[in-house]
Amino acid sequence: MTDRRAILTSLVLIAVSAVYFATALQYSAGSRAIPISVATLTILFLFLDILSQGEGRVARGLRRAFGGAASIRPGGDAQEQPVRQEALALAWIVAFTALATAFGFYIAIPVYVISYLWLHAGKPIWIAALVAISLTGALYLIFEVLLGYAIFEGLIFGGYM
Amino acid sequence: MEDALAHSFHALVAGGGVFYLAIGAVVGLVFGIIPGLGGPTALALLIPLTFGMDTTSAMFLAGGIMGGVPFGGSVTAILLNTPGTAPNAATVFDGYPMTLQGRAGAALGAAGAASAIGGLFGVILLLLALPIAREVILFFAPPEFFMLAVLGLSAIAVSTEGKLLRGLIAAGLGLMIAFVGYDDVGSGTRFTYGVDYLWDGVPLVPTLIGLFAVAQIVSLYLSGGAITKNPEEVEVSRVGEGVRAVFREWPTVLRGSSIGAAIGAIPGVGGTVAAFLAYSVTVQISDEPETFGKGNIKGVIAPEASNNAREGGALIPTLAFGIPGSAEMAVFLGLLVLHGMQPGPAVLLNHMDVVTSLILSLAFASVFASVMCLLVARQLARITLIDVNYLVAIILPVALVGAYALNSSMYDVIVAVIFGVIGYLMIRFDYPRLPLVIAMFLGSVMEVNFRQSLMISRGDWTTFFSRPVSLILFLLIVLSLCVPAIRYGIRKFREGKEQEA
Fold first, then answer.
1. Where do the DUF112 domain residues begin and end (chain B) (predicted)?
2. Model confidence pLDDT, tens digit, residues B408-443
C-alpha cells in the first residue's frame, strides 16, 4: 500500500466520522456525549495516522510515540493484489447476492456454484454440477428439514425481504 | 456449581451432547487445517445453525470447534510448513524439520497429546477461576464496568502489534457502529438515517459472518490454487512415539500449558504470543538450545500445549466480564447473544449450567479432537490438496444462507456482504478487524455504564476516579496505552547498549 492510498483511506474515514459527528449533534446531551467523544477521538487518530506517513520528523516522532504503529508496510497482512482481481472477487459475491435476492437461494446456489467452478476455476462442468447439487441438497436438508427454516424464495417468486 | 456440572454431564451423555461435540470437533479440525479459515470463521458459519438448538447443545458444538481448531492448525504446520492458524506458527520451527527427517508422525503425536493435556489444563484453571470471578464481579458497579470496557478496548488496540493507531481507529469505528439504533438509556433511535431496519442496531451475527467468513472468501479467491500439490508431503507414521514423548517431557507440557492459560486470560494478547512465549521459554531453559529449530520434539510440545490451554484462560474474561480476548471469543459472544444471554456477569451469575456445558465440552473436545485427529491425520492433511476454488464456491452460499436464516431477512444478507467488503478492505489496508468487532460488543456496555455512573453520582465525574477499583482500572488503561512507547524505548536502549558493546 502506498502512502497516497493510506492517506486517501484515512480521508474517507474522516469524512464518515465527520458525518457521524454532525448527526450526533442533533441528539440530547446525554445521548450525544459518548458518540461525539468517540467520533472526535477517531478523527484525531485518523489525522495522526495521516501525519505519521512519510519520513519527516513529525512522522518519525509519531511512529516512535505509537511504537511504530503508523509505519506503512506495503500490503499489510494481505499481499498486493491487482485491483481488477479484487473487483472480480467482490463481483462474484455481489452477483450471488443479487441472484439470491431476485430468484431465491435454491436457484442462485446452483447457478453460482456451476458458473464459478466451470467458468472461473475451469473445472469440468459435471464436477461443478455435482458440487452444486450436493451443496444445494445439503443446505436444504440442514436448514429446511432439520432446522425448520424457510429459505428465501426470491422477490420474483413472491419472497419478502 | 455441582448441580450445573451434573446437569451438563447428563446433557453430554444422555442429551445428545456427544453428537454435537463430535460435529464441532470435526468442523474445528477441518477449519483449523485449512490456512486462512480458523476458529472465528468456523464459529461465525455455525452460529445460525445453533438457532434452533437448545443452548446447552449449542455450547457443546461451540466447545467442539474451539477444542478442534488449535490441533487442526498444527497438522499443516508440521506437515507442510504452513500454520493453519496464526498461533500454530511457533509449531513450524521444530515440527516441519521433524517432517523433513521422516518423523512427521511423531511430531503429530506429540502435538495431539500436548494439545489434549494443554486443553484439559486450561479447563481446570477455568473451573478454579470461575468461583473467584463470581465473587469479584459482585464488587463491580457501573464505574468499574465502564473502566473495564475501556481497558478491554485499549488492551485489544495495543495488542495489535505495530498498529496501535490503526487499532484505535478500528475500535472507534466499531463503537460508532455500536451506537446505531435504540438509545439504551435515553429514548428514541440514533444514527439510523431514516432506515427502519437499523432501529435495532446493526445486527451482530451477520456482521460477524461478513467480517470473518465473507472477507476470508475474498482472500481465498485471490490466493487461488491448492495449499499443497504434492501428496507425498502428507505422509504420516510412528504417531505413538510422539505421544510417549509428551508424557516423558511433562515439565515442558506443564510449562507451556501454564503460559498459555495465563496469557489467554489477558484480553488481546492472544494465542500467537502465548505459543511463541512458551516456545522461547522452553528454548531458553533447555540444556541444548542449539537443537531447537532442527526438529526438537519439545519445540512442538510447548507451543501446542500453550495453544490449547489458552482457550480455557481466554474464557475467564469473556464469561466473567463480557470482554472477549480474541476474535474467536468475540464470535462466541455473538452465539451467547443469539441464545438470549447478555455477555458479562449475568452469564456467570444466572446461567451457570451453560457455562459448565461449555467447560465440559471444551475439556472433552480437546481430548476427542486430538485422538480423532491422530487416527485420521493422514486423511485430514489431504484436505490441503483440495483446490481452494471449491472452498470459495461452497463457503459463500453457506455463509449467506446462514445470515438469512437467523431472522429470515435478506437485509441481514446484505449486511453480511457489506461487512464482508469492509472486512476485506480492512485486511487490505492494514486495519486490524479484532478491535472493531470487540468495540461493537463493548459499545453498549461502555455507554450504558458511563451514563448510569453519572446518574448515580448526580453528574459527578470524579466517581470514575474516587473508587479504588475504578481508579486502578483507569491507571491500567493509561499504562496499556503507554506500552508501545515503553517497548520502543526499551528496544532503542538495548540497541544502543549493543552498539556500545
1. 19-438
2. 899 999 999 999 999 999 988 888 887 888 788 788
Neighbouring residues of B299: CB distance < 8 A, sequence distance ≥ 6: B91, B93, B94, B95, B279, B282, B283, B292, B293
- Domain-located, residue A34: yes
Binding-face residues of A in 71-100 toward B, CB within 8 A: 71-73, 75-79, 81, 85-86, 88-90, 92-94, 96-97, 100
Please list, in sequence order, all residues whose beta carbon lies within 8 angstroms of the beta carbon of residue A151, skipping any fewer than 6 positions away. A104, A105, A106, A139, A140, A143, A144, B401, B404, B405
The complex scores an ipTM of 0.90
The shortest CB-CB distance from A100 to any of B387, B400, B428 is to B400
Looking at the structure, do residues A56 and A95 belong to the same domain, yes or no? no
Structural domain boundaries, residue A30: 3-65
On whether residue A78 sits in a domain, the answer given is: no
Residue ranges in chain A modelled with pLDDT below 70: 1-3, 67-81
Residues 6+ apart with CB under 8 A from B21: B12, B60, B61, B63, B64, B361, B364, B365, B368
Residue A73 lies in a domain: no
pLDDT tens per residue across span B16-52: 778 888 888 888 888 877 766 677 888 888 888 887 7
Residue with C-alpha cell 527427517? Answer: B101
Interface check A7 vs B, CB under 8 A:
no
Establish if A72 belongs to a structural domain.
no
